[in-house]
Amino acid sequence: MSLFQSLLIFLSFVAIKDVSPYYTDNYFVDKINDLRRTYAKKYNVPNMHRLMWSEDLVNILDRLDWSVAWPEARITWRYTALKFYETSQIETDVIDFLKKTPEEKSKTIKTDAKSSMKGMELFNPLQRFIGCYPKREGNSSFPVCLVGTEGSFTMFDTTGQSTGIPGSECHKRYKNEGGLCVPNNEDEESYYGHLEDIIESVNQIREDYSREFNVPNMHQLVRDIFSTARNNFFQIWSDDLLKNLQNMNRDNGFKGACVTWRYVHIDTSNKGSIKKELSSTFFEKSDVEKRSFVSINSHKTLESLEFLNPLQKFIACSRNSNTRFICLLGTEGKFTMFDYSHKSSETPGSNCHKRYRNDSGICVAIKPEEESYFGRQSDFMSDINEIRRRYAKEYRVSNMHALTWSNELAEVLDPLDTTGVRAKAKETWRYGALNTYDNTIYHIKADVTRFFEMNRTAKNDHIVKTLSDKDTMDRLEFLNPLQKTIACGRKEEEGVTYIICLLGPEGNFTIFDTSFQSQLAAGSKCHKGYYNEDGLCIMQIPTQVPIIDYRKMAEEERNKALTEEPEPEPILENHGNEISLGYLLVFLLAKLFFNI
Ligand SMILES: *[C@@H]1O[C@H](CO)[C@@H](O)[C@H](O)[C@H]1NC(C)=O
Ligand SMILES: *[C@@H]1O[C@H](CO)[C@@H](O)[C@H](O)[C@H]1NC(C)=O
Ligand SMILES: *[C@@H]1O[C@H](CO)[C@@H](O)[C@H](O)[C@H]1NC(C)=O
Ligand SMILES: *[C@@H]1O[C@H](CO)[C@@H](O)[C@H](O)[C@H]1NC(C)=O
């Protein structure tokens, strides 16, 4: 007789007690846990876990229809139907089971574990979560309980021969408490998994795929330092969107996405399940389907495939009650996929980002404590000057100055909020905003390219309009050739943290001639106190006199060369000069340091 039939018969004889729809009374679960502890001690079960009430399981159960089959069962949860929220029936079930001979026991498991082991489901030592909810059959209702996260039925050693120590083989993050395994921190454990487990699984998967597909640049994902971005995101997400998650246009919720981070939903920390999802959504598809999947979804989320973007380095996950985990991955806003054709002959871990090294085929940070989603200010400084030099050369900007970090500007910025920045700007400094210090070159370039592609009229219109609308030309501020100093800091606005940079000393906006009409040489009109270094005006470092003399000489040489043959300006940079100047500097520095 099936469970269902027996229940029907049972129901026809017994008047069913009314069960409250939201049964969260601990009493019932406590009694089950008492029973679990009793049997753990009696049978020396080393891994009997305390069952924790799970609203996630309740929600799953709530959506299920009792009158149809549940193919979802027995993957990450199992179920049992009860008569009441009482343990007497469960106790009877376990006593009956234990009375059986070993042959009868295995026969029962073999036949019933395919559906439900009735009360015995509550004695599976590995289950850690329970959620019960009434199901309706005709006019009566009865409680059904789901237990997770195990999909298969496991029974402890019922022979009485076990010599295990109760509570000695607990799940990680669980400890022995009187023979039962209990979580160290109940708040962090959930049916949907633990953050740590998700990240661990995802990193293992990244490592597996890196080796399987010979990915040269797969980076390990690191948690935590991403927290500011995470807070920004989850604040927006939870406050504005959670309320009507059902009805909302999903994409609105992620409008900050795809710039310096991307996102993915996940409801399991199980490596196998994540891999299964990757196979079914991507790897098992045809090449055409794969390509179209990526092109259709890359502006929002490619779901689990996001976990395989080799260039991501940071991860943050969070969940609100009733929803799956959402993980943010940074600092890439653009989706990148490795070569999955199985034709790559690269060596895993051979193309790590700087400050990352190969460890078992995956790139790990050499000094993780120095890496963060917001990036490093020192990288930013060299990036920002690199992009200024690049534009100076491309557009022959004669007066593009290198930016140096200014503690004075930093002091100005420090006490200001974004409103303050706006109010005080445009006198001796202007400001621009960035999302992170990371990938500055890429982001500035992406933002200014549209401007550079406009015709002269459109450019002027754009400048006039933007300046009348607001106080900043956004990323173009970083290309103002006359600015010489910079200082940046994190500022929050409407729950989102940006990097706000003050740039001085110019209070007016200037952009170089972007029409390709310039006949000047990059770095040929540096302000006083600056010298040309490969197209960029660099501040002279006040050092000993001979060095300045040499520099002046080099500069004069250069200027002389320029005046002697003013046209045509060489298209290619004069590497000869650059190298000799470089050697000169190295020589002088060596002289300075080693006294040779
Ligand atoms: C179920 O309840 C309805 C109304 O409460 C009643 O009319 C009906 O007879 C009941 N059915 C059974 C099988 O008890
Ligand atoms: C990275 O480590 C893996 C495993 O240790 C090794 O097979 C691979 O050759 C290494 N890659 C490089 C570039 O050294
Ligand atoms: C410049 O671009 C704008 C907008 O793209 C266009 O409307 C305008 O006709 C262009 N002007 C010239 C002179 O090409
Ligand atoms: C900005 O430009 C205006 C004229 O366009 C000039 O009067 C003003 O002095 C300039 N301000 C600064 C700070 O250079």
From TrEMBL:
Signal peptide: 1-21
InterPro entries: CAP_sf
Keyword terms, alphabetized: Signal
UniProt keyword annotation of Signal present: yes
Signal listed as a keyword: yes
Name assigned to this protein: SCP domain-containing protein
Lineage: Eukaryota, Metazoa, Ecdysozoa, Nematoda, Chromadorea
